[in-house]
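re: that chain from earlier
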Amino acid sequence: KKEKARRIFDFETHYPLTVTRKYDHFGSYTSAAGFDIYTARSFPKSFWNRTAFVGSPTGKLLGQFHLEPDGKGSYRARNGGNFVASFDEYTAPIQGRPGPDGNLYMLDWNNLIMIHGGELDNPLRDKSHGRIYRITHKECNPDQVLNLKDADTRTLVTVLKHQNMFWRLMAQRKLVQQKRIDAIPFLIEMAGDAGVDDIGSNPGVIHALWTLHGLGQVAGSNPEALTVAEQAVRHRSAAVRKNAVRVLPKTAKSANLLSELLEDPDPNVLRHILLTLSSMPQDDSLGEQIFAIRNRIPTGEGLSSPYQLALVRHGSLLVEQLIAQLPSRDRAKEGKLEKKEVELVNMLENPSFEESEDGLPLNWKSKVHKGNAKLSIDSSLARSGKNSARIESKEGGGAEYLMVPSLEPGEYLLSAWVRTKDVEGMNGVLLKVQGRGLQTKESAKLKGTIDEWQKLQINFRVDSQSGAVVFCLFGAWSEATGTVWFDDVELFQLSSDKVVPKVTKVESLLAKQAFQKGPEEIIKFVKLINTKDEKSSSVFMEGLNDLTDISFEVGQTNRLKALANDAAPANKMALAIFASNNQIDLGLTELANSLTGFEAEILTGNADRGKALASSCISCHGNDFTGMVSERSPSLPQLSDWYMQSQMQKFKYNVRGYEVTDSDGTAMKALMQNYGNQQIADLVAYIRTFESKEQAISLGGDPVKGKAHYQTCIACHQSDGKGNEPLNAPSLLGQSDLYVYNQLIKFRNGHRGNGSGDKSGKIMQMSAKLLTDDQAMKDLAAYLTTLR
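^ sequence. v structure.
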């Protein structure tokens, strides 16, 4: 499967100046437009190659994100808030890009209405105007605007060193497109420059290398150009090194050179080395060198996929050697699970207030929010350690200690130990937690005098990745008098609902590559694995899990069946899955049938609560949830409760919406991350209060022919098309022929139904492949529109 681009931003919140909404921005970058990095030098140094600008037309603002390496082969983009924000209702920034003078040019769509084209017919839509703003910095030293129309070769080469990438790219483009061969000696000289600029880069070398590449000089025809490129891979600038490895020709010599660079200290350079190696001619001798750096590769991070690609390319002969090195099998220890003690870890920093700065606890925000109150560290009274955090007020006031930890979906327990003296007031002393992805919770409220330490606690649930605000409150936005001491504040995660993408280990990938060669290779490696330690060898056996369409002769099946019978318990599951996927009998049918697949949690919903959650569904499914042809969305009210809940949960847990090419599915997957299972049930309950309506018929299918095709569907969906819950078969009534047709196409092409544990989806994939062509699907869709 194609891998989705990883998100690198820390949070998507944006900060509009007004509550006026252009359709809806939901408090975040729902209409993010553009991601342009400041690549000039006229603004202060803090902007250079570091600040990126993102338009948010629904919020009337241009945001800024600050880029920094994450140390794992990618980057972080820190949300820096607004760069430009407007009160003008027509302002709709869609791009911020450095211009030829080094200033920032902001493109403003200048429109009151920001919504999908067919969604709203409104005379206030402006289709004729736009605005461009030129934004300067008070410390700005604008670039001189050049005229390169008739520039000679030497001038163009010199411009490759210009401080503004706008001009560097223009010069490079002219040199390459006009085939300025006379530039080659100057380019080779420039590419040999060992210097670096104020941010550790050398743009002149980078552009010289790419210009030589564009002129075909580093492919081997010009030894001098190739030599300077090979030398540049060891340049002291990481920016130069990662560009130099990319211009190398795809030759065995280049592959060997890159293998010598695998210890490069910069993870982003290493990422490009690995990606380039993955496209070099296969060389099995490099496999061991690539495998040797596996401990430097963080699982699931930016280096993971490039590393796997490079290893699979050059490590095809490595798997047998790796398996042979495993510990020998000990049958007496097989099948025994190691007991793991779960240790709860306090998620708060400085929870006992032992660290302080200027008389206040470090890492906590100390704040008076009403009247007069004093916050301080008290070293004369503590439950543990030396300090507690004290709040007192004689005249009456409200104050707090707060912290904002980032929490993943799941269950949490917040607690703190408290002592009080003469506390009076409406709210007294309490704990509180609130945030975007959770329901606000408060502890019991304490008043009076409590001479012994007493524990306050709250259980709460987080439904989506969120920053939760943890409060230790005195007065709670009303006035209180007296004194309170807080100590030993604890926040524990009790369970996790975080969707963890499946990570395939490199050993499994190598084994899969070997298994794909056919039955004899599978038999050979299973026989070898059967002689090795169960725990160590299971990762190699998992290479069988995704293999399909491998044909076995009877004799080969019997040999593999005997090996399956002798396999270690932990390895039988992979063999059972393989047998099921390839329709062969290995004597593991019962085990294969035990694979329960994805099971939805069907809950009782509350329509009143669901109404508050439904606003984000309307833009695609319509105000009555009966679907919109322009958005390719289905009608929902007629669908059963269990089916809608299960499908929404599939999106939430990455069983649907996993395929990059399924834009509708990925949009639903992103949306469902913000809902817990109970919220999904509430949303479904509200949707089912609406009535379905007759759907459009637009594809011109033949219902008579479609009825014949439907005969293979009756076993699950019944003759009337109303479905069968025990078989996980939904009702097919009430949908447009276009929607049904699109879903059949997705099943046939593997864009739906391939999710982990989606057993019913895999059945539908097989059924869709029985339809001979697209016309058969249109005919079937037409027939379904005739059912009532």
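Residues 33-135 form one domain.
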